[in-house]
Write a structure and sequence with these properties.
- A five-stranded mixed beta sheet has the order 1-9-8-3-2. A four-stranded mixed beta sheet has the order 5-4-7-6.
- It is an alpha/beta fold.
- The two termini are 14 Å apart.
- Strand 6 and strand 7 form a beta hairpin.
- The chain has two helices and nine strands, in the order βββαββββαββ.
- 12% of the residues lie in helices and 30% in strands.
- It is globular, with a radius of gyration of 14 Å.
Amino acid sequence: MGECGPGLRMLPRPDLNLTLGALIVTVPQTSESVSGLSDNPAGLVLTDIAAQKVKALLEQEGRDDLRLRVAVQPGGCSGLRYQLFFDERDLDGDKTTGYDGFEVVVDRMSVPYLTGATIDFADRIDAQGFTIDNPNAQGSCACGDSFH
């Protein structure tokens, strides 16, 4: 079992109601209904619960120019890690999917890794935070913060 790099966070995340975390744990998809299935150039979907949480966090930010950016970056003990953050930038090749009141943006290099993935939000006594069920992930590290 390898160690995750500095700054990696694992669930539970009690501070997640204030900011979006940088890393996500891969978990099985929930049975909750899924938003954004049609016309989805970004290649991933958010459950209704995740979409509500993102919308609430964006409202807390008080800015109408921010979008949820989801990316895959090198790092972690399995080689790749997820990043979720609010971003106002438009990068060349970005793929954007609109939801009710906000947009999700994926950069062109991350789209192949995220196509078919589902983002959910867990708010239970044993776990709180955004989760990603990614059919493209062949495995993950023991701590669940990165994948390959």
